[in-house]
Amino acid sequence: MINKSLKLKYFYIILAAAFMFVALQLTTELEPVKMSDPEDTLYLELENGRVVIEMFPDVAPGHVAHIKKLVREEFYDGITFHRVISGFMAQTGDPKGDGTGGSGQNIDAEFSDLKHERGTVSMARRGDDIHSADSQFFIVYHDQPSLDGEYTIWGEVTSGMDLVDRIKKGSERMGGRVPRDPDIIVSMKVAADVTDNAAE
């Protein structure tokens, strides 16, 4: 009887220890996720809602600084998504709306080991000139390994990618150009400058 009681006691001790271990693991896994710095977060307002973009100043400091400068000048407000290719990407940032315009300020390339995965925000440029990025950027719909190391990645969509999916697509025979009634950027703000800075 004594042996049986001891065995039962040890069983409960081991069981309690197991529960404590599992509880500790769950507590560790459920620690709150650190929120992105509002100074390095963009709110891209589309007609259907808000897209949140986390910028990477440690990876592409020149691009992030340039984008924030343009955003604070309201450069992007009202600009169209002039080239949108289904399954590939949505491109914007050209005040002319035909892919030839910009702010007139080129940025040196800042390539990294980051991958062009769904939601990646990367800089467009002219042809083979890797230092010709200006104001145009694109958001990738699906993984595009052929772009890795060729275009500067400066951010990623952390919320609202479903809204990006709904941006009006361009004509395949026109290389994704959207000739009629393209979707626009209603406004683009640095989260630190917005009083309502809760991600939707």
Annotation keywords:
single chain, 200 residues, alpha+beta, Cyclophilin, 8-stranded antiparallel sheet, 8 strands, globular
Structural write-up:
The protein has 200 residues and is an alpha+beta fold. The chain folds into two domains: 1-31; 38-192, Cyclophilin-like (Cyclophilin). 22% of the residues lie in helices and 20% in strands. An eight-stranded antiparallel beta sheet has the order 3-4-6-5-7-2-1-8.
Summarize the structure.
This protein folds into two domains: 1-31; 38-192, Cyclophilin-like (Cyclophilin, Beta Barrel), CATH 2.40.100.10. Helices cover 22% and strands 20% of the residues. The protein has helices spanning 2-29, 61-72, 161-165; strands at 41-46, 49-55, 83-85, 89-92, 120-123, 137-140, 153-159, 187-190.
